[in-house]
């Protein structure tokens, strides 16, 4: 069991629910429909990866080196992807132009893709029982 995966998954799940409720009740009337849709995309991806952290926390099929790679790729990927979307979609409220960090979003997505690819390759290598 990987405690840090479980803790990170719980934190990401908790904050995804909070951000989702905030979007539904607090942002709905204050940002454009397009920005709200983007914000909700960030929430969805954060929640999907919260579940992945929780699932991976209960299994022990990767080497320590690979589990570290997956952990940090997922952690950084979620923060970059969802975090940048949150900032970009609420920039009209804060008055801060976050367009300079727009490239962080695809970088975060790429890190998530790499983590999933590592998982896939390791699943393929698992021996049949």
TrEMBL record:
Report the membrane topology from the UniProt record: Multi-pass membrane protein
Instruction: Tell whether Transmembrane helix is among the UniProt keywords.
Output: yes
Ranges that cross the membrane: 47-63, 70-89, 101-124
What Pfam families does UniProt report for this protein, alphabetically?
DUF423 (PF04241)
Single GO cellular component annotation? plasma membrane
Q: What is its main location?
A: membrane
* Ranges in a coiled coil: none
The compartments listed are: Membrane
Task: List the keywords (alphabetical).
Answer: Membrane, Transmembrane, Transmembrane helix
The family database entries (InterPro entries) matched by this protein are listed as:
DUF423
Report the sequence similarity comment from the record.
Answer: Belongs to the UPF0382 family.
Protein name stated in the entry: Uncharacterized membrane protein YgdD (TMEM256/DUF423 family)
